[in-house]
Task: structure prediction
Amino acid sequence: MLLNDRDIMGNYINRPWQNWSAFAIVGFLILANGLYGYTIVFPSA
Result:
């Protein structure tokens, strides 16, 4: 990732656990929104 390049960002790079937690949160939000959309389109399913 560009923001993890120490030459560009110096000491302001993310640690690996910060990247994985951000990916997990974004993935959960995408899944939750998909399920919500499914319940709106197919309310009786």
